[in-house]
Amino acid sequence: MQRAGKLLVMNRPTPQEVGEAVAVVNAAVALAGGEVHPIARDLIEAMGRGEISGDRAAQAIIAEFVEAPSA
User: Fold this and answer.
1) What is the model's pTM?
2) pLDDT tens digits for range 8-64
3) Is 50 left (phi over 0), alpha (psi -120 to 50) or beta?
4) What 8-state DSSP symbol labels residue 2?
């Protein structure tokens, strides 16, 4: 992180850093006996690249897995 006046600027992660973060998530879930769903993995990668926020990823997961489909 760099400070530019009062604005806090964060560097975007590299593709390698995003891949490493996704690998850590996959390993943690696997150790717990689970598997990361492909849709969730895509959202995690998009968050890592700074394309979407954590809030937006949570909304997408809720919409995909929790909300009942409309008839």
Assistant:
1) 0.62
2) 556 777 888 888 888 898 899 999 999 988 998 899 888 888 899 889 999 998 988
3) left
4) E
Side chain identity, residue 31: L
Q: Would you list the domain boundaries of the chain? A: 14-65
Q: 9 near 2, Cβ under 8 Å? A: yes
Whether the CB-CB separation of 44 and 21 falls below 8 Å is answered with yes
Can you spell out the DSSP letters for 4-71? ETTEEE-PPPPHHHHHHHHHHHHHHHHHTT----HHHHHHHHHHHTTSS-HHHHHHHHHHHHTSPPP-
On the question of pLDDT at 3 being above 60, the answer is no
Count Cα neighbours of 64 within 13 Å in the Cβ-side half-sphere. 12
d(CA 57, CA 39): 10
